[in-house]
Amino acid sequence: MKKKSILSSLPSVDQLLNHEDIQKLIEEIPRTVVVNNTRSSLQSYRTEILNMKDDDLAKIYIDINKLIKNIVIESKKFMAMNLRQVINGTGVVLHTNLGRSLLSDEIKDQVWTVASSYSNLELDIATGKRGSRYSHVVDIIKHITGAEEALVVNNNAAAVMLVLSTMAKDREVVVSRGELVEIGGAFRVPDVMEQSGAKLVDVGTTNKTHLWDYEKAIGEDTSALLKVHTSNYKILGFTKEVALKDLVALGNKSGIPVIEDLGSGVLVDLQKYGLTYEPTVQESVASGVDIVTFSGDKLLGGPQAGIIVGKKKWIDEMKKNPLTRAFRIDKLTMVALEATLKLYLLDEEKMISSIPTLKMLTKSLDFLQDEAQKLYDILLTNNSNFQLEIKDDFSQVGGGSLPLAKLPTKVITVKPNSMSVSKLEEKLRTYTIPIITRIQDDQIVLDLRTLKEADYHIINEGLRDITTK
Ligand SMILES: *Cc1c(COP(=O)(O)O)cnc(C)c1O
Protein backbone atom coordinates (compact mmCIF):
# COMPACT_ATOMS: atom_id res chain seq x y z
CA MET A 1 0.00 0.00 0.00
CA LYS A 2 2.75 2.36 1.06
CA LYS A 3 4.77 1.45 -2.03
CA LYS A 4 1.84 2.22 -4.26
CA SER A 5 1.47 5.72 -2.92
CA ILE A 6 5.21 6.38 -3.22
CA LEU A 7 5.21 5.14 -6.78
CA SER A 8 2.24 7.29 -7.68
CA SER A 9 4.04 10.34 -6.34
CA LEU A 10 6.85 9.88 -8.88
CA PRO A 11 6.81 12.44 -11.68
CA SER A 12 5.60 11.31 -15.11
CA VAL A 13 7.85 11.13 -18.16
CA ASP A 14 6.18 14.26 -19.50
CA GLN A 15 6.73 16.17 -16.29
CA LEU A 16 10.40 15.27 -16.33
CA LEU A 17 10.74 16.22 -19.99
CA ASN A 18 9.31 19.64 -19.20
CA HIS A 19 11.84 20.25 -16.45
CA GLU A 20 14.04 23.18 -17.35
CA ASP A 21 17.31 21.16 -17.15
CA ILE A 22 15.92 18.50 -19.45
CA GLN A 23 14.65 21.11 -21.88
CA LYS A 24 18.18 22.50 -21.98
CA LEU A 25 19.55 19.00 -22.52
CA ILE A 26 17.25 18.49 -25.53
CA GLU A 27 18.90 21.49 -27.19
CA GLU A 28 22.17 19.56 -27.45
CA ILE A 29 21.06 15.91 -27.45
CA PRO A 30 18.42 14.34 -29.75
CA ARG A 31 15.01 14.25 -28.11
CA THR A 32 14.53 10.51 -28.72
CA VAL A 33 17.69 9.75 -26.75
CA VAL A 34 16.58 11.94 -23.85
CA VAL A 35 13.08 10.42 -23.86
CA ASN A 36 14.50 6.90 -23.76
CA ASN A 37 16.83 7.70 -20.92
CA THR A 38 14.07 9.48 -19.02
CA ARG A 39 11.93 6.34 -19.28
CA SER A 40 14.71 4.02 -18.21
CA SER A 41 15.87 6.26 -15.35
CA LEU A 42 12.32 6.45 -14.10
CA GLN A 43 11.90 2.70 -14.47
CA SER A 44 15.04 1.90 -12.51
CA TYR A 45 13.94 4.29 -9.77
CA ARG A 46 10.61 2.41 -9.66
CA THR A 47 12.39 -0.93 -9.44
CA GLU A 48 14.59 0.41 -6.67
CA ILE A 49 11.52 1.43 -4.68
CA LEU A 50 9.76 -1.89 -5.33
CA ASN A 51 12.77 -3.77 -3.98
CA MET A 52 13.01 -1.70 -0.81
CA LYS A 53 12.34 -3.12 2.62
CA ASP A 54 9.68 -1.41 4.75
CA ASP A 55 12.31 0.12 7.05
CA ASP A 56 13.98 1.89 4.14
CA LEU A 57 10.66 2.88 2.64
CA ALA A 58 9.84 4.85 5.76
CA LYS A 59 12.90 7.02 5.17
CA ILE A 60 12.47 7.57 1.45
CA TYR A 61 11.78 10.89 -0.18
CA ILE A 62 11.59 11.38 -3.92
CA ASP A 63 14.66 13.26 -5.06
CA ILE A 64 13.77 14.80 -8.42
CA ASN A 65 17.16 16.44 -8.80
CA LYS A 66 18.91 13.10 -8.49
CA LEU A 67 16.62 11.71 -11.15
CA ILE A 68 17.27 14.66 -13.48
CA LYS A 69 21.02 14.42 -12.96
CA ASN A 70 20.91 10.74 -13.80
CA ILE A 71 19.00 11.43 -17.03
CA VAL A 72 21.59 14.04 -18.04
CA ILE A 73 24.53 11.72 -17.32
CA GLU A 74 23.02 8.71 -19.07
CA SER A 75 21.96 10.72 -22.14
CA LYS A 76 25.44 12.20 -22.51
CA LYS A 77 27.01 8.78 -22.04
CA PHE A 78 24.78 7.37 -24.78
CA MET A 79 25.92 10.05 -27.22
CA ALA A 80 29.63 9.74 -26.47
CA MET A 81 31.72 7.43 -28.67
CA ASN A 82 32.16 3.96 -27.20
CA LEU A 83 35.14 3.09 -29.36
CA ARG A 84 37.73 5.71 -28.65
CA GLN A 85 41.34 6.46 -27.89
CA VAL A 86 43.01 4.97 -24.83
CA ILE A 87 46.55 5.46 -23.58
CA ASN A 88 48.59 2.27 -23.48
CA GLY A 89 50.92 2.38 -20.50
CA THR A 90 51.26 -1.41 -20.33
CA GLY A 91 54.34 -1.75 -22.50
CA VAL A 92 52.65 -4.50 -24.51
CA VAL A 93 53.19 -3.24 -28.05
CA LEU A 94 50.78 -5.49 -29.96
CA HIS A 95 48.01 -5.40 -27.37
CA THR A 96 45.06 -7.26 -28.93
CA ASN A 97 42.55 -5.74 -26.49
CA LEU A 98 43.82 -2.25 -27.30
CA GLY A 99 43.71 -2.64 -31.09
CA ARG A 100 47.13 -4.18 -31.91
CA SER A 101 49.06 -2.10 -34.45
CA LEU A 102 48.68 1.67 -34.71
CA LEU A 103 48.59 3.14 -38.18
CA SER A 104 51.21 5.64 -39.16
CA ASP A 105 50.45 9.37 -39.05
CA GLU A 106 52.02 9.52 -42.49
CA ILE A 107 49.17 7.61 -44.10
CA LYS A 108 46.22 9.50 -42.69
CA ASP A 109 45.66 11.64 -45.80
CA GLN A 110 45.62 8.62 -48.11
CA VAL A 111 43.24 6.72 -45.82
CA TRP A 112 40.83 9.59 -45.37
CA THR A 113 40.84 10.51 -49.07
CA VAL A 114 39.81 7.02 -50.12
CA ALA A 115 37.33 6.75 -47.24
CA SER A 116 35.53 9.97 -48.11
CA SER A 117 35.77 9.91 -51.93
CA TYR A 118 34.85 7.53 -54.70
CA SER A 119 37.90 5.49 -55.62
CA ASN A 120 39.14 3.06 -58.24
CA LEU A 121 38.65 0.19 -55.78
CA GLU A 122 37.44 -2.14 -58.53
CA LEU A 123 38.03 -0.06 -61.62
CA ASP A 124 40.93 -0.47 -63.99
CA ILE A 125 41.58 3.18 -64.82
CA ALA A 126 43.61 2.39 -67.95
CA THR A 127 40.90 0.34 -69.64
CA GLY A 128 37.77 1.63 -67.93
CA LYS A 129 36.82 -1.97 -67.27
CA ARG A 130 36.16 -3.71 -63.99
CA GLY A 131 39.37 -4.15 -62.00
CA SER A 132 40.37 -6.29 -59.06
CA ARG A 133 40.34 -4.82 -55.57
CA TYR A 134 43.43 -6.87 -54.76
CA SER A 135 45.45 -5.38 -57.61
CA HIS A 136 46.33 -2.33 -55.51
CA VAL A 137 48.60 -4.28 -53.18
CA VAL A 138 49.63 -7.36 -55.14
CA ASP A 139 52.66 -5.81 -56.85
CA ILE A 140 54.07 -4.27 -53.71
CA ILE A 141 53.57 -7.46 -51.68
CA LYS A 142 55.34 -9.40 -54.44
CA HIS A 143 58.10 -6.79 -54.54
CA ILE A 144 58.71 -6.90 -50.79
CA THR A 145 58.33 -10.64 -50.19
CA GLY A 146 59.66 -12.04 -53.46
CA ALA A 147 56.53 -14.16 -53.87
CA GLU A 148 54.97 -15.11 -57.20
CA GLU A 149 51.43 -14.08 -56.27
CA ALA A 150 49.48 -12.56 -53.37
CA LEU A 151 45.95 -12.28 -52.03
CA VAL A 152 44.55 -10.42 -49.01
CA VAL A 153 41.60 -11.33 -46.77
CA ASN A 154 40.16 -10.03 -43.49
CA ASN A 155 42.63 -11.56 -41.06
CA ASN A 156 45.10 -14.38 -40.81
CA ALA A 157 42.56 -16.81 -39.37
CA ALA A 158 40.47 -16.29 -42.52
CA ALA A 159 43.62 -16.71 -44.63
CA VAL A 160 44.37 -20.11 -43.07
CA MET A 161 40.76 -21.17 -43.57
CA LEU A 162 40.72 -20.10 -47.22
CA VAL A 163 44.05 -21.79 -47.94
CA LEU A 164 43.01 -25.10 -46.39
CA SER A 165 39.53 -25.00 -47.89
CA THR A 166 41.08 -24.51 -51.33
CA MET A 167 44.01 -26.89 -51.10
CA ALA A 168 42.87 -29.56 -48.68
CA LYS A 169 39.07 -29.84 -48.54
CA ASP A 170 37.98 -33.41 -47.78
CA ARG A 171 41.60 -34.49 -47.84
CA GLU A 172 44.35 -34.88 -45.28
CA VAL A 173 46.74 -32.24 -43.98
CA VAL A 174 49.75 -33.36 -41.99
CA VAL A 175 50.74 -31.11 -39.07
CA SER A 176 53.02 -31.50 -36.07
CA ARG A 177 51.30 -32.13 -32.74
CA GLY A 178 53.54 -29.45 -31.21
CA GLU A 179 52.04 -26.87 -33.57
CA LEU A 180 48.34 -27.43 -32.86
CA VAL A 181 48.16 -24.21 -30.92
CA GLU A 182 45.49 -21.86 -29.67
CA ILE A 183 46.30 -18.36 -30.86
CA GLY A 184 43.93 -16.50 -28.54
CA GLY A 185 40.39 -15.24 -28.98
CA ALA A 186 39.49 -18.96 -29.23
CA PHE A 187 41.34 -19.39 -32.52
CA ARG A 188 42.55 -22.96 -32.39
CA VAL A 189 44.46 -24.33 -35.32
CA PRO A 190 42.69 -27.74 -35.20
CA ASP A 191 39.24 -26.07 -35.12
CA VAL A 192 40.01 -23.89 -38.13
CA MET A 193 41.31 -26.91 -40.00
CA GLU A 194 38.13 -28.79 -39.26
CA GLN A 195 35.91 -25.90 -40.37
CA SER A 196 37.80 -25.66 -43.64
CA GLY A 197 36.89 -29.27 -44.39
CA ALA A 198 40.47 -30.48 -44.18
CA LYS A 199 41.19 -33.70 -42.29
CA LEU A 200 43.87 -33.22 -39.72
CA VAL A 201 46.61 -35.80 -39.35
CA ASP A 202 48.75 -34.83 -36.38
CA VAL A 203 52.20 -36.34 -36.16
CA GLY A 204 55.02 -36.43 -33.62
CA THR A 205 54.65 -35.55 -29.96
CA THR A 206 54.20 -32.30 -28.06
CA ASN A 207 57.90 -31.65 -27.74
CA LYS A 208 59.44 -33.54 -30.65
CA THR A 209 58.50 -34.02 -34.27
CA HIS A 210 60.95 -35.52 -36.77
CA LEU A 211 61.00 -35.38 -40.55
CA TRP A 212 60.24 -39.11 -40.64
CA ASP A 213 57.04 -38.47 -38.66
CA TYR A 214 55.76 -36.44 -41.61
CA GLU A 215 57.15 -38.91 -44.11
CA LYS A 216 55.36 -41.85 -42.49
CA ALA A 217 52.04 -39.98 -42.45
CA ILE A 218 52.06 -39.21 -46.18
CA GLY A 219 49.57 -41.35 -48.08
CA GLU A 220 47.11 -41.45 -50.98
CA ASP A 221 44.89 -38.84 -49.42
CA THR A 222 47.52 -36.33 -48.28
CA SER A 223 46.90 -32.92 -49.82
CA ALA A 224 49.41 -30.76 -47.95
CA LEU A 225 51.99 -30.49 -45.20
CA LEU A 226 51.27 -27.61 -42.81
CA LYS A 227 53.73 -25.76 -40.64
CA VAL A 228 52.36 -23.42 -38.01
CA HIS A 229 54.77 -20.90 -36.60
CA THR A 230 54.01 -21.20 -32.89
CA SER A 231 54.54 -17.53 -32.42
CA ASN A 232 52.82 -17.24 -29.05
CA TYR A 233 54.60 -19.90 -27.05
CA LYS A 234 57.83 -21.83 -26.98
CA ILE A 235 58.56 -25.31 -25.74
CA LEU A 236 61.99 -25.30 -24.22
CA GLY A 237 64.35 -28.13 -23.36
CA PHE A 238 64.20 -31.54 -25.05
CA THR A 239 62.60 -30.42 -28.30
CA LYS A 240 62.78 -30.97 -32.02
CA GLU A 241 60.87 -29.35 -34.84
CA VAL A 242 61.44 -29.82 -38.52
CA ALA A 243 62.91 -26.80 -40.29
CA LEU A 244 60.81 -25.34 -43.07
CA LYS A 245 63.44 -26.10 -45.71
CA ASP A 246 63.47 -29.79 -44.77
CA LEU A 247 59.70 -29.90 -44.96
CA VAL A 248 59.85 -28.23 -48.38
CA ALA A 249 62.38 -30.82 -49.54
CA LEU A 250 60.07 -33.61 -48.37
CA GLY A 251 57.12 -31.92 -50.07
CA ASN A 252 59.04 -31.65 -53.34
CA LYS A 253 60.14 -35.28 -53.16
CA SER A 254 56.58 -36.47 -52.52
CA GLY A 255 54.83 -34.02 -54.82
CA ILE A 256 52.85 -32.51 -51.96
CA PRO A 257 52.51 -28.74 -51.36
CA VAL A 258 53.78 -27.17 -48.14
CA ILE A 259 51.81 -24.44 -46.38
CA GLU A 260 53.15 -22.21 -43.62
CA ASP A 261 51.02 -20.19 -41.21
CA LEU A 262 53.63 -17.68 -40.15
CA GLY A 263 51.42 -15.73 -37.75
CA SER A 264 53.25 -12.47 -37.22
CA GLY A 265 54.60 -11.80 -40.65
CA VAL A 266 57.64 -9.69 -39.94
CA LEU A 267 59.13 -8.07 -43.05
CA VAL A 268 62.37 -6.75 -41.55
CA ASP A 269 64.96 -8.59 -39.51
CA LEU A 270 64.75 -6.93 -36.10
CA GLN A 271 67.71 -8.78 -34.55
CA LYS A 272 70.06 -5.84 -34.87
CA TYR A 273 67.71 -3.85 -32.64
CA GLY A 274 68.02 -6.45 -29.92
CA LEU A 275 64.93 -8.53 -30.67
CA THR A 276 65.06 -12.32 -30.75
CA TYR A 277 65.11 -13.98 -34.15
CA GLU A 278 61.76 -14.25 -35.89
CA PRO A 279 61.61 -15.77 -39.39
CA THR A 280 60.77 -13.12 -41.99
CA VAL A 281 58.20 -13.61 -44.74
CA GLN A 282 61.00 -13.20 -47.30
CA GLU A 283 62.90 -16.15 -45.79
CA SER A 284 59.82 -18.36 -45.85
CA VAL A 285 59.12 -17.50 -49.48
CA ALA A 286 62.77 -18.07 -50.41
CA SER A 287 62.67 -21.51 -48.84
CA GLY A 288 60.34 -22.57 -51.65
CA VAL A 289 57.23 -23.11 -49.55
CA ASP A 290 54.06 -23.15 -51.69
CA ILE A 291 51.91 -20.84 -49.54
CA VAL A 292 52.62 -18.55 -46.59
CA THR A 293 49.97 -16.71 -44.57
CA PHE A 294 50.47 -13.90 -42.03
CA SER A 295 48.69 -11.03 -40.26
CA GLY A 296 48.59 -7.41 -41.37
CA ASP A 297 48.35 -5.96 -37.87
CA LYS A 298 51.02 -7.84 -35.96
CA LEU A 299 54.70 -7.18 -36.66
CA LEU A 300 53.91 -5.78 -40.12
CA GLY A 301 52.31 -2.82 -38.36
CA GLY A 302 49.34 -2.25 -40.68
CA PRO A 303 45.55 -2.71 -40.51
CA GLN A 304 43.85 -5.98 -39.59
CA ALA A 305 44.27 -8.25 -42.61
CA GLY A 306 45.38 -11.73 -43.59
CA ILE A 307 47.97 -11.86 -46.32
CA ILE A 308 48.49 -14.94 -48.45
CA VAL A 309 51.60 -15.19 -50.63
CA GLY A 310 53.09 -17.99 -52.68
CA LYS A 311 52.69 -19.96 -55.88
CA LYS A 312 50.38 -18.45 -58.47
CA LYS A 313 48.79 -21.78 -59.29
CA TRP A 314 47.37 -22.10 -55.77
CA ILE A 315 46.41 -18.46 -55.33
CA ASP A 316 44.50 -18.53 -58.63
CA GLU A 317 42.52 -21.46 -57.21
CA MET A 318 41.84 -19.50 -54.02
CA LYS A 319 40.43 -16.56 -55.99
CA LYS A 320 37.72 -18.89 -57.31
CA ASN A 321 36.77 -20.11 -53.84
CA PRO A 322 33.50 -18.47 -52.64
CA LEU A 323 35.15 -17.95 -49.24
CA THR A 324 37.34 -15.28 -50.86
CA ARG A 325 34.18 -13.21 -51.38
CA ALA A 326 33.06 -13.86 -47.81
CA PHE A 327 36.47 -12.85 -46.43
CA ARG A 328 36.76 -9.81 -48.73
CA ILE A 329 38.53 -6.81 -47.24
CA ASP A 330 37.06 -3.34 -47.12
CA LYS A 331 38.46 -0.32 -48.94
CA LEU A 332 39.60 1.22 -45.64
CA THR A 333 41.74 -1.82 -44.98
CA MET A 334 42.99 -1.82 -48.55
CA VAL A 335 44.12 1.79 -48.55
CA ALA A 336 45.69 1.50 -45.09
CA LEU A 337 47.52 -1.66 -46.12
CA GLU A 338 48.78 -0.22 -49.39
CA ALA A 339 49.96 2.98 -47.71
CA THR A 340 51.66 1.04 -44.88
CA LEU A 341 53.41 -1.28 -47.35
CA LYS A 342 54.64 1.76 -49.30
CA LEU A 343 56.44 2.88 -46.12
CA TYR A 344 58.51 -0.32 -46.41
CA LEU A 345 60.07 1.14 -49.56
CA LEU A 346 61.75 3.93 -47.56
CA ASP A 347 65.27 3.39 -46.29
CA GLU A 348 65.31 1.28 -43.15
CA GLU A 349 65.80 4.01 -40.56
CA LYS A 350 63.01 6.14 -41.99
CA MET A 351 60.74 3.15 -42.45
CA ILE A 352 61.12 2.01 -38.85
CA SER A 353 60.50 5.48 -37.47
CA SER A 354 57.34 5.90 -39.54
CA ILE A 355 55.71 2.56 -38.66
CA PRO A 356 54.59 2.87 -35.02
CA THR A 357 54.82 -0.86 -34.19
CA LEU A 358 58.42 -1.04 -35.40
CA LYS A 359 59.29 2.29 -33.83
CA MET A 360 58.05 1.20 -30.42
CA LEU A 361 59.77 -2.19 -30.62
CA THR A 362 63.12 -0.62 -31.47
CA LYS A 363 63.19 2.27 -28.98
CA SER A 364 66.65 2.33 -27.42
CA LEU A 365 67.21 2.34 -23.67
CA ASP A 366 68.86 5.76 -23.88
CA PHE A 367 65.83 7.15 -25.64
CA LEU A 368 63.47 5.49 -23.13
CA GLN A 369 65.51 6.93 -20.24
CA ASP A 370 65.26 10.46 -21.69
CA GLU A 371 61.53 10.08 -22.22
CA ALA A 372 61.07 8.69 -18.70
CA GLN A 373 62.87 11.73 -17.34
CA LYS A 374 60.63 14.06 -19.37
CA LEU A 375 57.44 12.44 -18.09
CA TYR A 376 58.83 12.25 -14.55
CA ASP A 377 59.61 15.98 -14.55
CA ILE A 378 56.13 16.84 -15.80
CA LEU A 379 54.46 14.61 -13.22
CA LEU A 380 56.63 15.71 -10.32
CA THR A 381 55.79 19.39 -10.54
CA ASN A 382 52.07 18.69 -10.37
CA ASN A 383 51.57 15.62 -8.28
CA SER A 384 52.64 15.70 -4.68
CA ASN A 385 50.10 13.01 -3.88
CA PHE A 386 52.14 10.25 -5.43
CA GLN A 387 55.53 8.72 -4.98
CA LEU A 388 57.16 8.58 -8.39
CA GLU A 389 60.24 6.70 -9.50
CA ILE A 390 61.97 5.83 -12.77
CA LYS A 391 62.80 2.13 -12.87
CA ASP A 392 64.14 -0.59 -15.16
CA ASP A 393 61.65 -3.16 -16.34
CA PHE A 394 60.69 -5.27 -19.35
CA SER A 395 58.12 -4.68 -22.10
CA GLN A 396 56.45 -7.36 -24.17
CA VAL A 397 55.87 -7.60 -27.89
CA GLY A 398 52.37 -9.09 -27.41
CA GLY A 399 49.90 -10.21 -30.07
CA GLY A 400 51.27 -13.70 -29.80
CA SER A 401 54.60 -12.60 -31.28
CA LEU A 402 58.08 -13.29 -29.94
CA PRO A 403 56.85 -14.86 -26.67
CA LEU A 404 60.25 -14.97 -25.05
CA ALA A 405 61.36 -11.54 -26.13
CA LYS A 406 61.67 -9.43 -23.02
CA LEU A 407 62.57 -5.96 -24.10
CA PRO A 408 64.48 -3.96 -21.47
CA THR A 409 62.61 -0.73 -20.89
CA LYS A 410 62.15 2.24 -18.56
CA VAL A 411 58.99 2.70 -16.55
CA ILE A 412 57.64 5.23 -14.12
CA THR A 413 56.15 3.69 -11.01
CA VAL A 414 53.37 5.55 -9.25
CA LYS A 415 52.37 4.88 -5.67
CA PRO A 416 49.45 6.92 -4.31
CA ASN A 417 49.77 8.37 -0.81
CA SER A 418 46.11 8.34 0.05
CA MET A 419 44.38 5.73 -2.08
CA SER A 420 44.86 2.04 -2.81
CA VAL A 421 46.85 1.08 -5.88
CA SER A 422 43.91 -0.84 -7.33
CA LYS A 423 41.66 2.19 -6.83
CA LEU A 424 44.17 4.35 -8.71
CA GLU A 425 44.39 1.78 -11.52
CA GLU A 426 40.59 1.87 -11.82
CA LYS A 427 40.43 5.66 -11.76
CA LEU A 428 43.08 5.93 -14.48
CA ARG A 429 41.29 3.28 -16.56
CA THR A 430 37.96 5.11 -16.31
CA TYR A 431 39.41 8.60 -16.89
CA THR A 432 38.01 10.73 -19.76
CA ILE A 433 40.78 9.37 -21.96
CA PRO A 434 41.29 5.94 -20.37
CA ILE A 435 44.86 5.35 -19.19
CA ILE A 436 45.59 1.62 -19.16
CA THR A 437 48.37 0.59 -16.79
CA ARG A 438 49.56 -2.50 -15.03
CA ILE A 439 50.05 -3.15 -11.34
CA GLN A 440 53.33 -4.66 -10.26
CA ASP A 441 54.76 -4.95 -6.74
CA ASP A 442 51.86 -2.87 -5.41
CA GLN A 443 52.62 0.06 -7.70
CA ILE A 444 51.18 1.44 -10.93
CA VAL A 445 53.63 0.93 -13.78
CA LEU A 446 53.71 3.25 -16.81
CA ASP A 447 55.95 1.84 -19.55
CA LEU A 448 57.51 4.50 -21.77
CA ARG A 449 57.77 2.10 -24.71
CA THR A 450 54.08 2.32 -25.62
CA LEU A 451 53.54 5.98 -24.71
CA LYS A 452 53.65 8.91 -27.11
CA GLU A 453 54.85 12.34 -26.08
CA ALA A 454 51.29 13.63 -26.58
CA ASP A 455 50.17 11.23 -23.83
CA TYR A 456 52.36 12.82 -21.16
CA HIS A 457 50.18 15.84 -20.41
CA ILE A 458 47.04 13.67 -20.45
CA ILE A 459 48.56 11.38 -17.82
CA ASN A 460 49.60 14.43 -15.84
CA GLU A 461 46.12 15.92 -15.94
CA GLY A 462 44.58 12.52 -15.21
CA LEU A 463 46.60 12.08 -12.03
CA ARG A 464 45.86 15.63 -10.95
CA ASP A 465 42.10 15.32 -11.57
CA ILE A 466 41.93 12.00 -9.77
CA THR A 467 43.28 13.47 -6.57
CA THR A 468 41.38 16.74 -6.68
CA LYS A 469 37.96 15.28 -7.53
C1 LIG B 1 47.91 -14.50 -34.72
C2 LIG B 1 47.95 -15.77 -35.45
C3 LIG B 1 46.85 -16.19 -36.21
C4 LIG B 1 45.59 -15.37 -36.31
O1 LIG B 1 45.83 -14.19 -37.00
P1 LIG B 1 44.72 -13.02 -37.01
O2 LIG B 1 45.25 -12.02 -38.00
O3 LIG B 1 44.62 -12.51 -35.63
O4 LIG B 1 43.46 -13.67 -37.48
C5 LIG B 1 46.93 -17.38 -36.88
N1 LIG B 1 48.05 -18.16 -36.79
C6 LIG B 1 49.13 -17.78 -36.06
C7 LIG B 1 50.32 -18.67 -36.01
C8 LIG B 1 49.12 -16.58 -35.37
O5 LIG B 1 50.17 -16.20 -34.64
UniProtKB/TrEMBL annotation:
Which keywords fit this entry according to its UniProt record?
Cytoplasm, Protein biosynthesis, Pyridoxal phosphate, Selenium, Transferase
List the catalysed reactions: L-seryl-tRNA(Sec) + selenophosphate + H(+) = L-selenocysteinyl-tRNA(Sec) + phosphate
- Where is it located? Cytoplasm
Keyword hit for Disulfide bond: no
Q: GO BP, one example?
A: selenocysteine incorporation
Q: What is the protein's major site of localization?
A: cytoplasm
Q: Which residues form the L-seryl-tRNA selenium transferase N-terminal domain?
A: 7-46
Q: List the Pfam families.
A: Se-cys_synth_N (PF12390), SelA (PF03841)
* Recorded GO MF terms: L-seryl-tRNA(Sec) selenium transferase activity
Q: In which pathway does it act?
A: Aminoacyl-tRNA biosynthesis; selenocysteinyl-tRNA(Sec) biosynthesis; selenocysteinyl-tRNA(Sec) from L-seryl-tRNA(Sec) (bacterial route): step 1/1
Residues modified to N6-(pyridoxal phosphate)lysine = K298
Q: What are its cofactors?
A: pyridoxal 5'-phosphate
CC per GO annotation: cytoplasm
State the SUPFAM superfamilies in the record.
PLP-dependent transferases
EC numbers listed for it are 2.9.1.1
Say which family it is in: Belongs to the SelA family.
UniProt function note: Converts seryl-tRNA(Sec) to selenocysteinyl-tRNA(Sec) required for selenoprotein biosynthesis.
**Which PANTHER family does this UniProt record tie to the protein?**
L-SERYL-TRNA(SEC) SELENIUM TRANSFERASE
Question: What is the protein's name according to its record?
Answer: L-seryl-tRNA(Sec) selenium transferase
Q: Which organism is it from?
A: Natronincola ferrireducens
